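Notes on consecutive records. When two proteins share a document, each keeps its own sequence and its own token line. Never mix them. Below: protein one.
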Amino acid sequence: MNALPPRIPVTRGQIERVVKHFYAAVRTDDVLGPLFNGILSKDPEIWRTHEAKIANFWANAILHERSYDGNPMLVHSGISALDPTMFTNWLALFDKTLSDQLPADLALQWSTLAHRIGRGLRFGVESAHHSIGPPILR
């Protein structure tokens, strides 16, 4: 049992449902679909594995579970096809999913957290794509 209270009073089941519905929408989205389908393919098993990993990410971020061990910044900043402006679409689609799947108060709380994380990831991707390296001193 976790000693810390959840950041948002949602259940693991709600997290899994949001992630499942979000990625169903991503796969058909005009902006995000080609990127995700190109990276993950259209194989349902690969998608199930990805969705489980992302559900673990959110369970860690919200419920303080220790079920996620990835590095989202490293992963996202390493995707050359990921344009930082895509985070706007990602967050809009995520917000719609949250409002469709959760009561308004829970959707707003989770959205606030998602936007904070999204700002950090977008900054990391922008930095990785526009890095000019350290100055050359002579």
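Protein two starts on the next line and is unrelated to protein one.
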Amino acid sequence: MLYRINQVNWPEYSYCPEASVEVSNDHEYLHLCYNVRGEQLRAVTTEDQGPVWEDSCVEFFCQVPGEKHYMNFECNCIGAMVASRRLGRAEDVCPLSAEEMQQIERHCSFPHEQIEERDGVFSWSVELRIPLSLIFRNSAPVFPQELKVNFYKCGDKTKKPHFVSWNPIKLTKPDFHCPQFFGKIVLK
């Protein structure tokens, strides 16, 4: 299923690059294929669990229905990634271990090399294969068919900061850590 990431939630951050994500799954992995076309390109963070959201970044937040915790998977255009299980932005944050991070397959259209910000129009893609066992930790081996999610495109420290989502967020300032605004997707 293809989802367009085009909700501008905060008028002061009106820049909206073209972004979409195609979602599929098999019995072991959730597959996310992001395609982005926009102005500026930045990838200063090269290490996992660093501030990738400051770069040209795509994000996937998800929550298993009935659970209090949610997960965030944030990846810049060169494959550096942040992932954790949490109750809120700063509440009960449990970053995934290095071993768990290695289980997430990443394929990017740019090599894993630092990119100082560049002006111009750039198209890029990020493909992620996330083991379902990381998401449905308490449900394996039978995974639920439904997942609460939101998809994002951001670039906090780019020349045109932006905070775009798939499902609308009704808050006064940018914040993606808000499961109350997650939408639902059905896994096959």
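For the record: The chain has a mean pLDDT of 95.
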